[in-house]
Design brief:
The complex is a heterodimer of chains A (443) and B (263). With 443 residues, chain A is mostly helical. Chain A has helices at residues 4-31, 43-55, 64-93, 104-132, 147-177, 207-231, 239-249, 262-272, 303-311, 317-321, 323-326, 333-353, 365-368, 372-376, 383-387, 394-408, 414-426. In chain A, helix 1 packs across helix 12 and helix 4 (104-132) runs antiparallel to helix 5 (147-177). In chain B, strand 5, helix 8 (164-171) and strand 6 (176-178) form a beta-alpha-beta unit. Chain B starts with 9 loop residues before the first helix and ends with a helix. The chains are: A mainly alpha (443), B alpha/beta (263).
Amino acid sequence: MGYLSNVLFAIILIIGFGYFYLNVKKIIRNINLGVAVNRKDNAKARWKNMAMIALGQSKMVKRPVAGILHIIVYVGFVIINIELLEIIIDGLFGTHRIFSPLGVVYDILIGSFEILAFLVLFAVTVFLIRRNVVKLKRFIHSDLKGWPKSDANYILYFEIILMTLFLLMNATDLHLQNVPGGFSHFIKAGSFPISEFIAPVFNGMPNEAVMLLNESFWWLHIVGILVFMNYLYFSKHLHILLAFPNTYFANLNPQGQFDNLASVTAEVKLMMDPNADPFAAAPVSENEVPVKFGASDVQDLNWVQLLNAYTCTECGRCTSSCPANQTGKKLSPRKIMMDTRDRMEEVGKNIDSNKGVFVPDNKSLLNDYITPEELWACTSCNACVEECPVNISPLSIIMDMRRYLVMEQSAAPMPLNAMMTNIENNGAPWQYSQQDRLNWKND
Amino acid sequence: MSENLNVPTMAEMLAQGKQPEVLFWVGCAGSFDDRAKKITKAFVRILNRANVSFAVLGTEESCTGDPAKRAGNEFLFQMQAMMNIEVLNAYEAKKIVTACPHCFNTLKNEYPELGGHYEVVHHTEFLKSLLDSGRLTIEGGQFKGKRITFHDPCYLGRANNVYEAPRDLIQKLDVELLEMKRSKANGLCCGAGGAQMFKDAEPGNKEINVERTEDALETKPDIIAAGCPFCNTMLTDGVKNKEREGDVKVMDIAELIANAQDL
């Protein structure tokens, strides 16, 4: 084949990474649809969070079965990617097992890749069983009807195919390494604790046929990886990349602390300032969009909330721990994240097809995706935030949307309006006079 | 029947030129709710017994704004916050104790940005510090040997990571402290938070307080201990729903301690 295969390999690589790059740009553009929020403070605590929670998977093991299996797949994914480096160099320069001169180190590397690949196969099989046979409640939940359910299974099938190809590639290689007197370029290199059990399958086959199989497995494996990488953008699986920035930029304040809207602070201060001129016109500046209180659409959320939406891998731990969901209410924190992402992607496509400008489409995250009934069912208990293995906060989105309902639309449920009226009139959520606040002393 | 509680107000303190050691933020529930008023009084009895110099704002106290904020009304919250901060700052309040985790969370976390900087502690933390410094002794009394389970209030536990102070206090009562299957960071909400206390629940197949009460009853307790007036109401209703009010009591930790010493 000469240089043809190297060129072909380079082209496939460029297409694979190029398309991925274009989609990453879209993700970043969409995340930047959100409003600003400062999450650059306290870098030390942020790095620590990322190291513990994303890299160290500390929150995953709260549910030990899923947690340990996930760590296997995660470690497998990260470690086996070292092998990818060799595959890319071999592919580009027509070498074969370029790292094999590392000797014992190489044996250890290939050996551990193989064991991990086998463990990943095991873990992924258990995951498939949990989803499709045992049918854990959070995996058959109504949130996942249709595409999200298929998406989850496709990812698992993909991982099975990639790991199998990797092991078959090694098995054929080992078979050819063991041809008496040697065969072609298949030098003795590596250790194959798993594929040595597969290699005998090829006994009796012509060496040329086995070599053809070996090359096919090699190509399918690398092409498969590139396809999988590009599948991420269309799936819930982006967390393998975004978990890292997401944990870095996550909220560091106590979970009970909700942000104080700065735009409201300015107005309240003005109202309480005895020297303020009540007849003064509001300062007018050109092109200024009037401030909207709370969020009715993705552009009103902040960029970290949008990053959260892309990072969510729909595991449903939030929903399974949500008191409202457990008692049959419509609210599902996972659905809040999925809806936010779906709407964000819809807005992104709108921008793409309108030359970079969003053309109003008479839709919004509120009502078209998330209903007030869902928002009002939240007890703000923070169970979803606590559960999320990558520090996503569905609660902050719920609160921002409640703010819009109340401050822009006066659309709170009637009993809440009564409660707020009481606070306004007599400083308590019930209708008791402030003058009676100390009466308990003499009851 | 009025008992002899010593409850000075900040205004009275100021008139005498005194600054109390701690300001007791009673909260709306603690001031007006019949059940919660008992908790307020129990806490005051303990403060009186331990000779703690404290004062309340009395008629100058107003809602922290927590339910308004969680309902989405940031305007009303910030109005309340700024008015309260003006009052607190005028009295130069340094340390605040409250028996309501919602007031606690709001005062502690959401007031500083608006100009209110105080050391804020939950009453269980404050009682624990009295115990640790020897100003308060706790004995089991009537509760000795009883089975008690503690329900973590969301705004004390998950929201602010206070898990041990209430448990340490309960254990001082010589009781058997039982953990529910979901406790501490995994604790289930009582159903009252996020302004749910003031509205009906959305359609579903169960009330949250009943679900949580079932968790508590699974531990076969004599007493369900709470640290929040709203949790207290929700769990009391849950126990009634399960028709167990005859053999299971819902009590605040302050009540447990006060009753144990026959205060």
